[in-house]
Amino acid sequence: MATEAKSSGIWETIKTVFWALVIALIFRTVFFQPFWIPSGSMKDTLLIGDFLFVNKMAYGYSYASCPNIAAFGIDARKICGFLDRDNTRLLGGGPERGDVIVFRHPTNGTDFIKRVVGMPGDKIQVTDGVLIINDTPVELQDAGNFVEIKDVQGPLRNMPRCENGPVGLGAACEKSRQIETLPGGQFHNILNIGRMPSDNTRVYNVPAGHYFFMGDNRDNSTDSRVPDRAGGVGFVPYENLIGRADRVIFSSAGRSMLFFWTWRGDRFFEKLE
User: What residue numbers bound the domain in which 243 lies?
Assistant: First the structure.
């Protein structure tokens, strides 16, 4: 009897864990996906260590709504292949220019987060660091400097790049900050470090059904300015959008988001612009 009771208890535990995982997968696929910021490409909108939930209802659903489970070699298309609909989406809605979006990289399957600045049919170029959309430069306004401490950041041990020259560990690392206003009136901060090759680009004609993304930390972002075959993002298909990032839940300045004593007190439930 004791053995039967023990076996029954183990089986009940297995079933409970199984259904908990199924419910978590459904919640992650349909409603909100947790996302942690590993790099500084979206500073100062998003900082290394920010933890947020991505709204997956914003643009409807595609194969990219399901996760890639790399540890088991499972591709999202194997889970949600029925949603692979020739660059369309189920219950689909289009993003607005300026949305901060998590998307599936077109070739390597990694989840990225950037800001959409180019819509289907747009002509995009960057000249002297100024974004030009359909032959019209965006409005820029100086907003002082973004200052952080020169030190390793996050579990990837990233080291920030500074505009004020080589500085030692623990010193102030500065970047120029501007407010960029996109067509339609959406505005946000962008950062600049200095003159970079990505400050002057060719003209990009965004194809139908695709989007052009850039990081807010303009000189430290590998984005649509770089073709996907060269390690960049290139044009991102509509079906590769995962969801919209609306708000930071909390933020850790340490090596792990579990180190609660390193959480930044000014970023709880911070709304994104």
Answer: 31-271
Instruction: Mark whether 48 and 165 lie in a shared domain.
Output: yes
* pLDDT tens digits, 240-271: 999 999 999 999 988 887 888 888 899 998 98
> What does the chain come to in residues?
273
Indicate which CATH number applies to the domain containing 263. 2.10.109.10
Question: Is residue 39 annotated as a catalytic residue, yes or no?
Answer: no
Q: Which residue has the tokens 């996760």?
A: 67
> What is the pLDDT at residue 81?
63
pLDDT, tens digit, for every residue of 29-65?
556 688 889 999 999 999 999 999 898 888 988 888 7
The reply to whether 100 and 233 lie within a common domain is: yes
Kindly state the tokens that stand for 245. 């990032």
Count CB neighbours of 55 within 10 A.
Answer: 18
Could you confirm whether 56 is annotated as catalytic? no
**pTM metric for this prediction:** 0.85
Q: Same domain, yes or no, for 49 and 148?
A: yes
Average pLDDT, the chain: 85
Q: Give pLDDT < 50 ranges for the chain.
A: 2, 27
Catalytic residue among 41, 62, 176, 251: 41
CA–CA gap between residue 231 and residue 251 (Å, rounded): 28
Selected catalytic residue, list 114, 150, 198, 252: 114
Do both 66 and 125 map to the same domain? yes
